[in-house]
Amino acid sequence: MTDRELLNQAAMAMKTSYAPYSRFKVGAAVECEDGSVYSGCKIENAALGATLCAERAAIAAAVRAGNRHLLRIAIHADGPRYCVPCGTCRQVLHEFAPEAEVLCSRADGRYVSYKLTELLPHAFSSEHLE
Fold first, then answer.
1. Per-residue pLDDT tens for 68-85?
2. Fewer beta carbons within 10 Å, N or C terminal of the chain?
3. Which residues are catalytic?
């Protein structure tokens, strides 16, 4: 799958976001080792702490389907800046793809690519629990 195809899936997922409070809709799509792709959208809640980010929704869909080996994630929002994952999403992504590529796009379709290790250089992992 090309970067653009994965980003397009994230953009399509963004359209189903539920964001009545912030009006900041986000979509995400994760690609798994077996080539399958799962998407998710942001789901806000009046109790803002209960909001589900698009990235975690996409990861949850992949895990629910039995895919725990993720390769990369694409994130899209219709704003002027690149949409990067929040800290919680970075940590959750690290659980399933510590070396993931993270594609971040914006309204004009341009995107940047990061390695998760750039965005979360000293992640907490299962090794800390040994």
1. 999 999 999 999 999 999
2. C
3. 55
88 contact partners, CB below 8 Å, separation of at least 6: 53, 56
Could you give all domains of the chain from N- to C-terminal order, each with its CATH number? Answer: 3-129 (3.40.140.10)
Q: Which residues contact 5 (CB under 8 A, 6 or more apart)?
A: none
pTM over cut 0.90 = yes
State the Cα–Cα distance between residues 101 and 107, nearest whole angstrom. Answer: 20
Contacts 24+ apart (CB under 8 A), 82-86: 82/106, 82/110, 82/111, 82/112, 83/26, 84/114, 84/119, 85/53, 85/55, 85/119, 86/53, 86/55
Distance of CA 118 to the CA centre of its chain: 15
List the end-to-end C-alpha distance of the chain, in Å, as a whole number: 37
- Around Cβ 84, how many Cβ atoms within 10 Å? 15
The two structure tokens encoding residue 123: 């992640």
Q: Are 31 and 125 in contact (CB under 8 A)?
A: no
Mean per-residue pLDDT, 45-64: 97
Which whole-number Å values give the CA distances from 34 to 54, 88, 92, in the listed order?
A: 21, 25, 20
